Amino acid sequence: MSDVRHLNLGLSQSFPCSYLADQNEQLLINRDPIDALQFEQLLALGFRRSGAQVYRPHCQQCEACVPVRVPVARFVPSRSQKRLLAKTEALTWRATTRPTAAQQALYLEYICQRHSDGPMYPPSLDQFERFLVCDWLDQLFLEGWLDEELVVVAVTDLLPHALSATYTFFQPEQAALSLGTRAVLAQIGLAQQLGRDYLYLGYQIDDCAKMAYKTRFRPIEHLQGHRWLDWPG
C-alpha cells in the first residue's frame, strides 16, 4: 500500500479567507507527486485538491473547516430530497471523462452570474483547467441535461474506494431546481452503483451559508481529530 506518512508538506502564506469575512487562512500543501490511492488516503486525513494541488486548511486561530463525507451504503434520502428527485425526474444524466466545450461555457456563465463578487471572477478557460482538471486522477464530468440543454455538471474524482465531489456548477436560470443538491444525490447514486464506500463533500463551515446544504445528507460523517464520526442530530 502507498504510504503518505513521508510526503513533503509545506505551509502557504496567510491570505484572506474565501468563506469567512475578516478571517485569514493558511494551507498545508503537498509538494510530492502522488497517485489516486495516496490521494484517497489524504482525503481521509482531511485534504482536498484544487487542480493538481492537494491541500488542507492549517489556520492558526480557526478550525471552522470540518471535512465531511457520506457513507453511501447507509444513506437514506430525506422527504425533501425525495421530492426533489421527483421534481427533477426529467433530467437525463450522462458522463464524460474529459471536459467539453459545453461544460466550459456553462462554467463561465455560472461564475459570472453566481460568483461575480468572489476570487474566481472573472473566469477563464485556463482557470477552468487549472482548477478542475487533474492528470493523475480518473475523473467523471457528470452532466445533467434538461430538454437537450446542459444544466448542471458535477466534477467527480474516481478513487479506489470512494468518490470525491470536487466542484459543481449549473445553469443559473434553473436555480429553482436545487441543482447543487440534485448533483450530490446523483453522485451518491453513482457511488452506490460503483460499489464505493464514501462520497467526500469537502468542508462543512457552519458560519458559511453556502455550505449549509452538506449536512442535509444523512447520515454524514465528519472528521474529528483522526476519527470519522457521524454528524450529531
Q: What can you see in these coordinates?
A:
The protein is an alpha+beta fold. It has two domains: 9-64, no CATH class; 69-230, 3-Layer(aba) Sandwich (Aminopeptidase), CATH 3.40.630. The chain has helices spanning 36-43, 79-87, 101-114, 125-132, 179-194; strands spanning 9-11, 15-16, 24-25, 27-30, 48-50, 53-57, 66-71, 92-96, 138-146, 149-158, 162-170, 198-204, 221-224, 227-230. The protein is globular, with a radius of gyration of 17 Å. The model has no long low-confidence stretch (mean pLDDT 95).
Write the layout of secondary structure elements.
Blueprint: E1 9-11, E2 15-16, E3 24-25, E4 27-30, H1 36-43, E5 48-50, E6 53-57, E7 66-71, H2 79-87, E8 92-96, H3 101-114, H4 125-132, E9 138-146, E10 149-158, E11 162-170, H5 179-194, E12 198-204, E13 221-224, E14 227-230
Parallel strand pairs: 11-12
Antiparallel strand pairs: 1-4, 2-3, 4-6, 5-6, 7-12, 7-13, 8-9, 9-10, 10-11, 13-14
The unreliable regions are: none
N-to-C series of helices and strands: EEEEHEEEHEHHEEEHEEE
Number of helices: 5
The tally of strands reads 14
CATH superfamily placement of the largest domain: Gcn5-related N-acetyltransferase (GNAT)
Helix proportion of residues, in percent? Answer: 10-25%
SS-based class: alpha+beta
- Spatially, the strands of the biggest sheet line up as 8-9-10-11-12-7-13-14
At CATH's second level, what is the architecture of the largest domain? Answer: 3-Layer(aba) Sandwich
Number of domains: 2
Strand content: 25-35%
Q: Based on Cα principal axes, name the global outline.
A: globular
Most strands sheet: 8 strands, mixed
